[in-house]
Structures are given as structure tokens and as C-alpha cells.
């Protein structure tokens, strides 16, 4: 379980300090797909980064499965981060490594007891024919699949997704959402998704936190629609959105 | 004209052994400089990056010490650096003049400082996301350096090394002042001081060819390794 208590973090801005995260208290259950939504600058990403300690709150508590994340020493922190994977908006692949080498990368950093095989995850995200390609040869959606495969290969207990579809077009977004949902079902982990795209939350999450200017405004139950509308072509969507009254 | 050409060729043949010797001396200085650049300049540049603000080993003191060292060495007029280092070289090596190994000491110092700066710049050009990804995976600092930074910066590290290499050739040409020899010294002594202009230009041509080959090889290797 992820437990955040009264966590606050300020950054120095042009007009003095501003609170990116303002005393937020929040629990995320094991195996849950939890969304964090809000406009850009609402502090969603900072809040999520508390979980794997890429950001540390100025005050408050962050506990993951009983471990106090804020006070971990360097070595313990690495052990903590080892089991939490992250998917990024801009994919953050190493451009000088092949797809295969990118996915294998986390396995070369730590010893994992029961990792998945590289081939297995490549197949899972549907990139069998791209294993020896370099990221520059891939489309945005394919790059994000590599990012997801790299995140899954360690069999993480928590998967953090930071705007995973915000750099992608709509159809690709649906593909990625689909991969994420299958991943959660198949590998049974806690998933936290930060996004400003309501559709992504709608398709994936049962619960979501709504943030505004650093504050937690509400935590809502999501009426999940398992299928978005991925069957529509771009042209059909355009007609739907622009012509329907 | 063929007669003049004949004379020229004869003179080149006559000077060839001296030229070969001076190339050997240049080679010694270059090898010392290159080894120093890689073994010490690369780590120093990496330290400059890692110790800078917002980076994993952020440390103002360490950064400033390294930074000031690089700035001082690089802003020293090289000829004076050579002169100033004489007692030090004598202390460590026994003699400060008259051989290319002694002349290699200032070469190594400038090589370290120069390449460290190139390395620092190359590493700063790596997209921020790479660093964040590495941190999210719980890397140690050596893992960060070897598995992320050097992988992503490799072609720019090679281009920087090529530029540094060309500068080393240039620096090596004045080592004649302390008897270090080398191709530059050859050009000055036989060509300039003895008015044998043809020999001087021949030596310069040799240097130019070396620079062109080095530059071509460096860029080619960098392009091959660059998958961005």
C-alpha cells in the first residue's frame, strides 16, 4: 500500500516559493490502478515522484508497504527504487541502444529474483519485429511500448506512469492504454497514472485523485468504460467531435 | 621544372631520416597526451559534470577545485606553462629538457584540462530525461556513468577527443624550445632558421595530412556510433 500523509513540497519560483504539493494525504491500495488528474502545473508529477523518491517532500510522510521512503539511506533507497518502474511522457529511451538492449537495461543494474525475459515482454507489447531497431527508427507509440516493456521486465510491484500518452495522438493513445491495462491484468501490480487526459483515466482507473494548484481537491470513483472508442478511425472521430451537436 | 623537382626530391630524401625521427618524437608526445586525456581528462570532466548543480554528486567545493584547475591550465600561455613546469619535471623525471618524454609533461597537463572541458560539455548535452530514468531505476553512480552517460554521449565524446587531438598536435609543435623535438621543431629548425623553406612547407604539409586524417577518422567513428 502506498500511504502519503500531509506531504508538502515547495519549489523556488520567479515570484518566490510556490507549493507544488500542498499537504496532500492519500492512500493507494495494492493492485489498484489509480489516476492522478489535473491541469499542467497542478503538482501531479511531483506527487507521483514521492513514491519512488525522485522527489522528496519538505514535510509529511510517504510510506510504501510499510517502508518510510523519505528517510531511506542511499543503498536502501536503491533497493526501494529497484521494484518500482516508471514510464515517461517522452519515453526516455537510450538512443544509442537497440530496443532489446533498452529493455534489458534495468536487469543489468540489479539482481532480480523472478524477472521476465526480454523476449517475453517484447512479445507482450507487440514489438517482435523491432527488437534490433534503434529508438530513432520507431514511431512514438512504438517508443512508448519499449518504455513499457522496459518497465515490465523487472516484474515491478508498482508501475508509475507519468503522462504516458501525452506525446501521442489519439489512436496511439488507445493502443498504449490497452497495453497498460493488459499489463496490469497480466502482471498484477499497482499502477499509478498521472495525466491530464480524462479519457485515459476513464478507460484505466477505478479511482482517481483530482489536483489543482498543489491541492488534492477530491478523490473520485471512476465509472470505468473498458472500451474507449478505439474502433473509430481518425476521420470518424473528427466527424464525431466536430459535427455532433 | 623537372630539374627543380629532382632537386626537391633529393633534398627530401636527404632530410627523411631527420623527419622520421621528429615524427617519432611527436608520436611520443601525442601518445602521452592522449593517454592522459583518456585516463585523467575523462574522469575529471565526468567529475565536473557530476559535481555541478543539480547533478547526483553535487558538491560546490569539488566542482570549484576542478573548475579552477581546468581554467588555470587552459588560460596559461602554453609556452610559459612549459617553462613554469621545468622544476617539477626535473624533480619527477630527472631531466626537464632535451627529450620528448620530458616534453610530454606539459602536454599531458593541457590534454587533461582541455579534454575534461570537452567531456563536461558533452555530458551536459545529454537530455535530462536520461538522468531521471537512471535515477528512477536506482542506479549507483558508476552505473549511471558507464551504462547511461557514456552510452548516450559516446559520439560527442569522440568528436571532442578528435578536436582535442588536433590541438595536441598544435601544442606539440612548440616543444622544441625545451628540446622536445617533434615535427614542429623540425619545421622551425630546418625550414625557418636555415631558410630551407621547401623543407619547412613539406613538414607543415605532413602535419596538415595528419590533422585531416585524424579529423576524418574521428568524425567517421562518431557517425558510426551515433544512433540518435
Automatic annotation (TrEMBL), chain A:
Q: Upper taxonomic classification of the species?
A: Bacteria, Bacillati, Bacillota, Bacilli, Bacillales
Q: Which PANTHER family match?
A: AMINO ACID IMPORT ATP-BINDING PROTEIN (PTHR43166), METHIONINE IMPORT ATP-BINDING PROTEIN METN (PTHR43166:SF30)
Query: Which GO terms of the molecular function aspect are on file?
Result: ATP binding; ATP hydrolysis activity
Protein biosynthesis among the record's keywords? Answer: no
| UniProt record, GO biological process | amino acid transport
The record, for Pfam families, names: ABC_tran
Q: What is this protein called?
A: Metal ABC transporter ATP-binding protein
Which terms are listed as keywords in the entry?
Answer: Amino-acid transport, ATP-binding, Cell membrane, Membrane, Nucleotide-binding, Translocase, Transport
Q: Which Gene3D superfamilies match?
A: P-loop containing nucleotide triphosphate hydrolases
Q: Give all residue intervals belonging to the ABC transporter domain.
A: 2-238
| InterPro entries reported in the protein's UniProt record | AAA+_ATPase (IPR003593), ABC_transporter-like_ATP-bd (IPR003439), ABC_transporter-like_CS (IPR017871), MetN_ABC_transporter-like (IPR050086), P-loop_NTPase (IPR027417)
Automatic annotation (TrEMBL), chain B:
Sorted alphabetically, which keywords does the UniProt record give? Answer: ATP-binding, Cell membrane, Ion transport, Membrane, Nickel, Nickel transport, Nucleotide-binding, Transmembrane, Transmembrane helix, Transport
Q: What are this entry's molecular-function GO terms?
A: ATP binding
Query: Which PROSITE patterns does this entry report, sorted A to Z?
Result: ABC_TM1
Q: Does the keyword Transcription regulation apply?
A: no
Where in or outside the cell it occurs: the entry states: Cell membrane
GO annotation, cellular component aspect: plasma membrane
Q: What is its main location?
A: membrane
Q: How does it sit in the membrane?
A: Multi-pass membrane protein
Q: Which CDD domains match?
A: TM_PBP2
List the Gene3D superfamilies hit by this protein, alphabetically: MetI-like (1.10.3720.10)
Q: Which residues cross the membrane?
A: 28-50, 62-89, 101-119, 157-179, 199-219
- What GO biological process terms are annotated to this protein in UniProt? D-methionine transmembrane transport; nickel cation transport
Residues of the ABC transmembrane type-1 domain = 23-218
| Cross-referenced PANTHER family | ABC TRANSPORTER PERMEASE, TRANSPORTER, PERMEASE PROTEIN, PUTATIVE-RELATED
Which family does the record claim for this protein?
Belongs to the binding-protein-dependent transport system permease family.
Protein name (Swiss-Prot/TrEMBL): Methionine ABC transporter ATP-binding protein
